[in-house]
Recover the amino acids of this structure.
């Protein structure tokens, strides 16, 4: 029997020097070799043979191995941030003249990278809606990569992973998913056929608003290539951050399961409030994403979004909060709210925002771990202020 997710997240590799329970922080940028011939291990790309921390480091490697197991992949590489993981992974598989199909509903910085930067490198970018992605052989049959998120930032709408994988298989494209909103506790895309899973580990994996990191998990061969990009682009993690992340992973399932419950309670509360025009949460039976989410997630996640009358109402709501914080991140123990048109989805025109289904009055909510009575009272008084 393979160990459960909590066991996997808690158990670290043993460092035998002093039998410490917590894996040590190897705060060293460089590791000396016994003899020059040892560089042969480095040249062969052995990640367990550490010579320089930008390439690999024992404290970083401990977390990479743990994350690979949690996502049911063969290997993992840790980055300095989610965006470092996303951009380095995309640029591993795409070069001048190649084409990529991406969902038109993505985290804003990823969307802007594809729209503004990838195109500068001569990469042909097709932004498609879900139905077009599912029929990729008709809309963009020559793409090398299909890139998507589910649940999607900021609406938490879900996309059928099985249908994207099926479509990609027809044209032989690599599938890359951003799994940050779900976390590996709620969703494992690799067993569903996805090639590469990415995370902003700054979110649920870190969970305490005190670290930045990014993750790519996939087959040994894919990760070997992605690691080479990480090494030359330089977006590596560091031992301190990796150790903080290791600390966080030990409570990942506890936190995520509590955040799943909190988000559902909040979504149901907002549904009863008449100043809220719409509630987006895949755990609600009324959600258009509910059936898809049920088929591919074991929990519906801690992220929801509400729509208020307009941007002014959204600002008044956020500015009146006393428990939840108006801060543009997610996945932490603190409940955070943000207005996408002022934060994650800036520098997008009305047409692009409409395609991403982002409205000016939308408020994204990341459910934290505060007492629910305090959160509901806070949200009630903030709604009254709008
Ligand atoms: C879904 C998603 N992916 C990626 C990122 C980028 O991660 P990072 O801020 O760690 O670079 C974010 C950040 O908000 C995100 O929400």
């Amino acid at each position: 029997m393979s160990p459960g997710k909590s066991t996997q997240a808690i158990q670290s590799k043993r460092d035998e020097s002093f039998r410490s329970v917590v894996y040590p922080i190897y705060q060293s940028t460089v590791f000396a070799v016994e003899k020059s011939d040892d560089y042969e291990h480095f040249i062969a790309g052995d990640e367990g043979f550490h010579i320089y921390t930008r390439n690999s480091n024992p404290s970083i490697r401990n977390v990479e191995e743990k994350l690979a197991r949690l996502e049911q992949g063969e290997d993992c590489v840790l980055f300095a941030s989610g965006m470092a993981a996303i951009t380095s992974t995309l640029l591993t598989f795409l070069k001048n003249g190649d084409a990529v199909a991406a969902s038109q509903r993505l985290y804003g910085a990823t969307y802007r990278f594809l729209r503004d930067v990838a195109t500068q490198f001569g990469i042909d970018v097709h932004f498609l809606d879900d139905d077009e992605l599912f029929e990729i052989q008709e809309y963009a049959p020559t793409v090398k990569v299909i890139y998507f998120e589910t649940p999607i930032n900021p609406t938490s709408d879900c996309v059928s992973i099985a249908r994207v994988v099926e479509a990609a298989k027809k044209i032989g494209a690599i599938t890359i998913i951003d799994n940050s909103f779900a976390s590996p506790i709620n969703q494992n895309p690799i067993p569903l056929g996805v090639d590469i899973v990415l995370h902003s580990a700054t979110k649920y994996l870190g969970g305490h608003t005190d670290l930045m990191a990014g993750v790519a998990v996939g087959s040994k061969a894919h990760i070997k290539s992605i690691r080479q990009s990480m090494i030359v682009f330089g977006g590596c993690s560091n031992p301190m951050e990796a150790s903080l992340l290791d600390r966080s992973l030990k409570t990942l399932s506890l936190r995520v399961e509590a955040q799943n419950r909190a988000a559902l309670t909040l979504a149901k509360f907002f549904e009863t409030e008449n100043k809220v025009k719409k509630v987006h949460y895949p755990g609600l039976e009324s959600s258009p994403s509910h059936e898809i989410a049920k088929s591919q997630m074991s929990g519906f996640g801690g992220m929801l979004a509400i729509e208020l009358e307009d941007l002014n109402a959204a600002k008044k709501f956020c500015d009146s909060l006393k428990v939840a914080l108006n801060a543009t991140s997610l996945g932490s123990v603190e409940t955070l709210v943000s207005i996408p048109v002022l934060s994650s989805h800036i520098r997008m025109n009305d047409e692009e925002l409409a395609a991403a289904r982002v409205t000016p009055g939308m408020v994204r909510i990341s459910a934290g771990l505060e007492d629910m009575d305090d959160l509901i009272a806070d949200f009630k008084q903030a709604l009254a202020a709008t």
About this structure: The two ends are 53 Å apart (CA to CA). The chain has two domains: 5-249, 253-384. The mean pLDDT is 97.
